[in-house]
Every structure is written in C-alpha cells, then in structure tokens.
Amino acid sequence: MNTYIKLIEQKLATFDFGDRPSELYEPIRYILSLGGKRLRPVLTLMSCQLFDDQYEKALYPALGVEVFHNFTLLHDDIMDKAPIRRGKQTVHEKWNANIAILSGDVMLIRANDLFLKTDQFDIGKILSKFNTCAAEVCEGQQYDMNFETRYSVSETEYLEMIKLKTAVLLGFSIELGAMIGGAEERICNQLYDFGINIGLGFQLKDDLLDVYADSAEFGKQLGGDIISNKKTYLLIKAIELANGQEKEELNHWLTEKDFDQQEKVNAVTDIYNKLGIKALSEKKMNSYFDKGLEILETLDIDTQRKHPLKELVVKLIDREK
Description:
This protein has helices at residues 2-14, 22-33, 39-49, 59-80, 91-94, 97-116, 123-148, 155-181, 185-212, 215-218, 224-227, 233-241, 244-255, 261-275, 277-298, 303-318, and strands at residues 84-85, 88-89. It has 321 residues and is mainly alpha-helical. The longest helix is centred in the middle third of the chain and has 28 residues, at 185-212. The chain is globular and about 60 Å long.
C-alpha cells in the first residue's frame, strides 16, 4: 500500500492546478497537502492491478478521484461549520467561505481534467459513471443536511444517505480501476458492489470514531456529530431505544439551543454507553465489511492478486482514525 501512496503523493505534489490568483489555488494545494488516507486513489490503483500489472496507467484518473473527494470535504466543512480537518484549520477558517467555495469549484474542474488523462478508449463511459457518482454524492449531502432538522430518521433512510454520500465514491473508485485494467463488465459490477459494502462499513466506522476515537489520533473535532445533532447510526439507534430518563435527557440535548459543547458530548456519549449503542454500531458495521469480503472472495480472480484488497479491508476495520 505504501508504494501506491508514495506514487499518489509524488504526482499530486507536482500536478499544476494553477497559480493566479494565488488566493484561488493556494487553498487547493493546502487541503491536498494535509494528507489523509488516500483510500480512494489507492483502491483505484489496486483494482487496476487485479487485471494489469501496469497499474500506473490508472494514476491520473485515481488522482481525479482524490481531488474530487477533497473538493467534497472542502464544501462539506463549510456546511458543517467544521473548524478542523486532519488536525489543521479547515480552508474556510484559514481563508474564508467564499474562497473555499470557489477553490472547491476549481477542484471539481481539475478532477475532470485528470479523468481525461487516460489511455482508456471509452473515456465517455468513465465520465458518465463519474458524473452519476458525483451527483449521488451531492444527493447524499443534501439528505444529510435535511436530517439535521428532523427529529426522526429511520435506519433505512440513514443507510441510503451514507451509501450516496460515501459508499458510491468508493464503489466508483474500484470500478474505475477495473475498467482501466480491462476487466469485463460483470467483474466491474461485482467490484462496484464490493466497494459499496466497504464504503458503508467505512462510514459506520467513521460515526463510531467521531464519538469513541482518541482525539489526538482522530485529527478532527471529537463529538462534532453530537454537537450538530447529526443523524448518525448511533443517534438513530439511541432515539429508537431510549426510554424513561435516557429518552428525556436525550430529547433535552437534541432541542437545547444554548449549551456547553463538551458537556453535551459527554452527556450524549453517556446515554450511548447505557444503551449499548457502540456494540450495535460495530455489529452493523461488521455486517457490511463481511459482505464486502464475501463478494471479493467469490470473484473469479487469482487469490494472490486479491490479497492486497483483503488486507486493506482488514485495516479499515481496525483503524483508529
């Protein structure tokens, strides 16, 4: 995995996003310099290598996925009023919201430029799938915002939202690599489904980490979802299961407008602990990771070639940030 990440970092560092005006392009270089797991472009390269040892042919499209992903983070941070991203100031905090919006717009344009830098003959198919994925990510973000003002959100609604907001991009990343590697459509579809399930598990893990991670490791504001009443799987299950005093207290924190942030995080976390929400969330998360691994296992591809993908899924399950 380190080989893929090194290649991705080197190419990102040298790619010409633009120079003037500096206020437009410096934020792009800034957010990309903050690092991150580079999970999506790594998945694209890994998926390509399942079918073609010359996986570098998928590098530019893989970078397109990463630039698009960071564009969504930049805009999401504005909407969430998030102060920290990967342990550093968010772009709208370091500059301002208008600059962050415009820099994000350019990132979306540059992502398309990167997809065009491929020898894949059917570039139209790639761009069509990307555009579908990009629209779905926006739909997922809108659902996420809608849920913030609703008291009741069903588990089914939530899982559909995170499928759109998070999982479809992982699915596309893997399908993209397979397409460039020359895989037949049936296999590409199976790998997309693998990515969807891994993506669902990944987001459920993120929900858990927002509450239960080591703050020094996590790199983001701990308890941010609780502070903003974000309808995560944890909160949805707590609303469903709470009775008596826990229900009364939870309702208090969900409706209180003037509160101490840390006090709210501690109080809601305590309710989660009393209701066993962490164990329920881990069970749901693992069900998706297990399904993804089952799909990978049934793929008609050499076991040794599939091993890096399987190893990566295990790391995602065990990650602490």
